[in-house]
Amino acid sequence: MKSFLFSSLLLLSAIAASAQLKQPTLQEAAAKRWSEMHADRIVATADGNGITTSDIRRQIEPIIGQIRAGSKTEAESEKAIANVADETLNSIADRHLVIAEFRASTSGLPASYIDADIEETIRRDFNGDRNRYVASLRAAGTTPLAHRKSIEDRIIFEYMLSQVKRSAWDVNPGKILEYYEKNKIDFVRKEQVKLRQITITQGAAEKPEETAARAAAFTDALRHPAKIAATLERFKVAGKPITGTPTFADVAMRISTDDLAPKGGDAGWQNLENLNETVNAKLKTLKAGEISDPLKFDVGSTPIYVIVSPEAVRPKGFADVNDPEVMATIETKVRQINMNIAVKSWIEGLRSKHYVQEIR
Description:
The chain is of the alpha+beta class. The chain contains 14 helices and 9 strands.
């Protein structure tokens, strides 16, 4: 649709005002701009449903400040707002068409779906108080009946879109390979290491030298797993008994003080160049599965020791398309592309099937 909302939704610029035979005062211009901005009229109909300037204004008002802040001139700002208004009009019209398609093809939405949604809203947002819910609707200038209608429309719209998207959900290996070949530059990988780490911090009743000794003891135990159980007991580390041969992950979950502890110290794949210089240098001297010496870092007056262990390395170059991580990334992207295409095609079909009219 053309930008016919420009004069209806935007404030007139000073340039437009100066084009009049009589130059208005600032107060007159402001009054005129206020009146035009808040005037309400039907600007389009979609399958018989009127779309008003207030419908559009409600959706774009929250971002007008952001648009103006990012614009260099008033003219640029007004143009950007006009574009957003037109996009919003199209979106509202498309929504009406989707709902019209649902109503034309089914007997209607079961009332229980709407009831369940409202009850969940009351429980979640109003602590189960229906009176507070109704009062909130009144404060927002609406009624329970109007709100119920908006919920019904939302459920219908989401359901219809989900049905179209579901048809584009499957992604075959051929599509994955095709996307990879066309976008191979996006899969250039820097030199990486898959590592685990344990962070040891000084205890409240512990001296710096005791922390260093504890870090050294656990490093030795990690290098000789038969010592792990005794070392955990020596330092009174609580936790469930370890079954089988203890691992780096078992120790990390019990003694590490960083955010990776719940994952057994698993830091995943990391670009070597992004790691701390000390850690990076040490990793380059280790083979997969080897344990580093405790690496000391001074945070203020408190020492922190980090023990790292590389599990695997991969050189710089193109990521393998058969890598599960790469395949998952491409599958997500291709699926999203397919769904966008399916929805766009479907909406275009609805536009030709149902009636949309601009009202100037």
